[in-house]
Amino acid sequence: MFPRFQIMLVSSMLLLMVFILLSWNTMDRLNRFSANQQVLESALLKGAGNQLLQRIQDLQTRVLLFSEEHHPQIAKLVQYPDNAALRVAMQQRVKRHFPDYSNFMLADANGFVKFTEQAPPISEHCQNDLLRFSQMSRQHGADHLYPLYTHPHQSQHHINIMSPFLNQRGLKQEGIFLVSFKAHILAQILADYELPGYQLMLLKQDDPGLIEITAKGGRETLQRAHQLDRAEQRSIHQHLQIPGSLWKLVVLSSPALYQNYQQSALLEAALVLGLVLFVTFLIVRIAWLSYRC
Question: Is the entire prediction scored with pTM above 0.85?
Answer without folding.
Answer: no
